[in-house]
Design a protein that fits this description.
- This protein is α/β, with parallel strands linked by helices.
- It has helices spanning 29-40, 57-60, 72-75, 81-85, 96-109, 199-208, 235-242, 245-251, 272-284, 289-292, 302-320, 323-329, 349-352, 400-403, 415-421, 453-474, 483-498, 528-540; strands at residues 19-25, 45-48, 116-117, 122-128, 133-138, 143-151, 173-176, 191-195, 214-219, 226-227, 345-346, 358-362, 368-372, 375-378, 383-385, 388-391, 406-408, 437-439, 478-481, 546-549.
- It has a domain at 4-158 and 397-549: FAD/NAD(P)-binding domain (3-Layer(bba) Sandwich).
- β14 and β15 (383-385) form a beta hairpin.
- α1 runs parallel beside α16.
- The protein is globular and about 70 Å long.
- It binds NADP nicotinamide-adenine-dinucleotide phosphate (NAP).
- Residues 67-69, 156, 163, 195-201, 203, 218, 220-221, 342, 363, 368, 392-395, 507-508, 513 line the site of NADP nicotinamide-adenine-dinucleotide phosphate.
Length: 557
């Protein structure tokens, strides 16, 4: 069944104007706001999206059970009080359809659709050094020139769709969660496999288990999970959070993770009993507080990490009871610490495995060898016969979406090739060799992973608008990080990141989920507030890590 939001989908594609000041790629949280800002500044700006409507992540990830695990009222934009207050959420952590409706509300209220071409993929972009312009091609046969090219392509939008040999031979339906069909899949009475138990797989598993005949879950690395509490919001709750607008606006942008809460305890200052009390309290909150607002030491200190990890494992074991399930589903001491991988919130996820129609299959020591026409074959030859396979196997995060576009910068430099050698950026928003290419949700910024996304994407798009405004005011129109500027940022990023336990683990946080991807902690780990401060300082000091010039003239540092 189609969602009501589909009614406002465009039926006719807007052509992309041939000459632009700025072209924005993507119409998710970042793209919509970037388009709005640049239009308000008087630029001729347009956005393109492969999707047939706005939403970005919330357009593509329409798999069963997809929902927020940031509190909805902190995920909203904070730049316009009326825009904020005129939208009302129905619960603390709403689902994809409601979030998608909110994104439609934003697009309509800001009248953005007239400057968006949906169903339009940017295939190639080449920087013309002589003119200081990008020449951009779309899959619709258009060629556009734009002074500024802004990637609002999302940090988790390049799905790893071809994960296993033999996928094409499968007799039933096989879908990646990031490309789940709009019309859904008929799962009732079916034998369904879910591969992957990250934040996505967990939401799928707990949602579809009651519907399907048999659910087989292939589990490789067990996950630490936290129970979600998701109260409905009525008029009182809406009045409560809307009444906090000024407070939220003042605090959220400066916290460590862009959430409303922050780390407020110091491990060494508390007795074991007091620590336990803190952990119990944040665990009961039903949010990500245990991860993002208990003890920052969990990210640096092996002993603290182990104590907190054991606290979470204990909670999980108590719910699972069955030793076999505990063995498959609960991380083991020494695997990796709580919080060094993305922590998912769940609703009765562990209890799902106690159902008769659900089977957990460990593929840690007996990996998936291939997909065969009947189902999933493991290395030892066992075939699990299924009708439908849902691949919750993740994304080429941070760099993946832009690297899938054929982008050529200065001196023939290819972005994909550069990032195949080493994942580097300056402030996570520009890349040496690629003048006037701005990016959001890209590596080496908190928006690559460790952030409430709207907090970080607002900050980044505002910073990018500030760069363009600065160029306009100073008569410059080409901006590029200097080699030294980029070296400095990468060095600082690594220094901060390598001090964390995250750097010692394997997940999409370090790029290790994509074979051959250079290893680096993708997200800036110095904190959202600190990062914002560094970006602001860079602007205030006249962008010392960047060279700016007039097109055709030599660049000045
Ligand atoms: P993910 O965290 O990368 O998880 C992928 C899963 O697939 C892992 O369990 C992984 O196992 C498994 N996998 C990959 N290749 C496999 C193979 N060959 N054999 C067996 N298992 C394999 O991806 P995700 O769950 O899509 O989540 C990505 C991110 O999206 C999250 O971390 C989160 O930031 C975001 N997200 C957010 C929300 C929300 O806000 N509500 C919801 C969903 C997702 P290994 O760990 O062993 O590699």
């Amino acid at each position: 069944m189609l969602d009501a939001t589909q009614n406002s989908a465009q039926t006719r594609r807007n052509p992309v104007p041939a000459e632009l000041d700025a072209l924005v790629i993507g119409t998710g949280v970042a793209g919509l706001y970037q388009l709005h800002q640049l239009r308000e500044m008087g630029l001729k700006v347009h956005a393109c999206d492969t999707a047939s409507n706005v939403g970005g992540t919330w357009y593509w990830n329409r798999y069963p059970g997809a929902k927020f695990d940031s509190e909805a009222y902190i995920y909203q934009y904070l730049f316009d009080e009326k825009l904020y207050k005129d939208w009302t959420w129905s619960e603390r952590f709403p689902g994809q359809r409601e979030i998608e409706r909110w994104m439609h509300y934003i697009a309509d209220r800001l009248d953005l659709r007239r400057d968006i071409s949906f169903s339009t993929t940017i295939t190639r972009a080449t920087f013309d050094e002589a003119r200081g312009l990008w020449t951009v091609e779309t899959d619709q046969g258009e060629t556009i020139t734009a002074r500024y090219l802004i990637g609002c392509t999302g940090m988790l939008s390049a799905p790893l769709e071809d994960r296993f040999p033999g996928q094409a031979s499968f007799k039933g339906q096989i879908v990646h969660t990031g490309r789940y069909p709009k019309e859904g899949l008929a799962l009732e009475g079916k034998r369904v496999a879910v591969i992957g138990t990250g934040a996505t797989g967990i939401q799928v598993i707990q949602t579809i288990a009651p519907e399907v005949e048999k659910l087989t879950v292939f589990v490789r690395t067990p996950q630490y999970v936290l129970p979600m509490k998701n109260p409905k919001y009525g008029p009182d709750e809406a009045a409560w959070y809307k009444g906090r607008f000024d407070e939220l606006k003042a605090t959220i942008p400066h916290t460590f993770t862009g959430f409303e809460y922050d780390f407020s305890n110091t491990w060494a200052d508390l007795t074991p009993e007091e620590r336990r009390a803190v952990l119990e309290e944040v665990h009961t909150d039903g949010s990500l507080k245990l991860w993002l607002a208990s003890f920052a030491e969990m990210f640096f200190d092996e002993e603290v990490s182990e104590e907190i990890s054991e606290f979470v494992r204990e909670k999980m074991r108590a719910r699972l009871k069955d030793p076999r399930l505990i063995d498959i589903l609960v991380p083991k001491k020494g695997d990796y610490g709580f919080g060094t991988h993305r922590v998912p919130l769940e609703t009765q996820y562990l209890e799902t495995y106690l159902r008769d129609n659900v089977e957990a299959v460990s593929v840690r020591d007996n990996p998936i060898a291939e997909i065969v026409p009947e189902g999933v074959r493991l290395e030892d030859g066992t075939v699990h016969e299924v009708d439908t396979i849902i691949m919750a196997v993740g994304f080429d995060a941070g760099s993946g979406a832009l690297a899938r576009i054929d982008i050529t910068g200065r001196d023939g430099m290819k972005l994909a090739e550069e990032w195949r050698k080493d994942i580097r950026t300056t402030l996570g928003m520009m890349k040496f060799g690629f003048p006037n290419l701005f990016m959001t949700g890209a590596p080496l910024a908190p928006s690559a992973a460790l952030c409430n996304m709207t907090t970080c994407l607002q900050q980044q798009t505002e910073w990018i608008s500030g760069c363009i405004r600065h160029m306009q005011e100073t008569g410059k129109d080409v901006m590029e990080p200097t080699a030294e500027g980029e070296d400095d940022w990468v060095r600082h990023h690594d220094e901060v990141a390598n001090a964390t336990l995250i750097s010692k683990t394997n997940s999409w946080y370090t790029g290790s989920n994509v074979p051959g991807k250079p290893r680096r902690v993708l997200s800036y780990t110095g904190g959202v507030g600190t990062y914002r401060g560094k970006c602001d300082e860079m602007a205030k000091e006249g962008y010392p890590a960047f060279a700016m010039s007039k097109a055709g003239a030599p660049q000045e540092a």
